[in-house]
Amino acid sequence: xxxxxxxxxxxxxxxxxxxxxxxxxxxxxxxxxxxxxxxxxxxxxxxxxxxxxxxxxxxxxxxxxxxxxxxxxxxxxxxxxxxxxxxxxxxxxxxxxxxxxxxxxxxxxxxxxxxxxxxxxxxxxxxxxxxxxxxxxxxxxxxxxxxxxxxxxxxxxxxxxxxxxxxxxxxxxxxxxxxxxxxxxxxxxxxxxxxxxxxxxxxxxxxxxxxxxxxxxxxxxxxxxxxxxxxxxxxxxxxxxxxxxxxxxxxxxxxxxxxxxxxxxxxxxxxxxxxxxxxxxxxxxxxxxxxxxxxxxxxxxxxxxxxxxxxxxxxxxxxxxxxxxxxxxxxxxxxxxxxxxxxxxxxxxxxxxxxxxxxxxxxxxxxxxxxxxxxxxxxxxxxxxxxxx
Length: 389
Known about the structure:
This protein is α+β, with helices and mostly antiparallel strands. The chain has helices at 2-19, 33-66, 84-111, 234-247, 253-259, 278-283, 294-302; strands spanning 120-122, 125-126, 134-140, 145-149, 154-157, 159-163, 168-174, 179-183, 187-192, 198-202, 208-214, 226-232, 249-251, 269-274.
């Protein structure tokens, strides 16, 4: 009876083990070369650490059993205090592991730098000399993703595509709060921050549809801030571009200002044409009419400030594009709805006086531009357009 009860408990564990069969360990089975190298780094680092952890656990259990109180055959030496041989083993083994991990970390930090252009397609193929990367400009909105293809003149929402074995150069920013751009099958996560630009170089080596999402909590609609990344052949990519141009509408400043308002579970949207200066305006936080661009502000600061007369620039540098009071705390506002901008208290602004400039945390002033930022160009706001798919 007791054996039967024990067997029944084991049977209860079996369904729990079966649920693990449905897990998709995409991080350990990626489809892009950068993600493959990152996976290998995880495995090598884990194995090196286990070289210390496993023997320590084993010896801990062995010593507890060997020197148990009931084992009178074990040597009892309460006066023991030192063993040179044991000290050498205790210190040299962990030191060797730390040196190995340090060397691997230093090499991989430079080799897998997301800003570094790719030097290979995969472990067996180098990048062809005449290969031109596909440029994709990424904007994290609340709570959806906007993708620009500047060389193709198109844009999409919550859908991304790229041809297999073609290097991809991502330029990443955000409209309001910090997010994290992450496609586990392609490469590691990269932060998206307002007023700043980060970069990611990657390549997809297998055809398929992969999940992308934000890996940084950013508010109520965060859990639905997902998109699909399509890895396709060159012919498939050309067909996808043709579909976007056929089914898409136009993305101008007015359309963008409606799109950027907080909304959840946003459907896929196609834009057959996109304002060529819009991404730079978003990056420089001057997509809304009447706002001063970040690069213009930095140029004024570099020239010594505008003096007391520059107080009129204060309003131009107030940024609050989340429209929280109109969106009911950021819930349920569709991209097509229109509201008037609320009056907001200044979140961050510059007085324009020399030596009295406030900048966003983590941003450094160096000449006309800041590392990772591009010069935006202002423009007249285009007429409002219906954004329907």
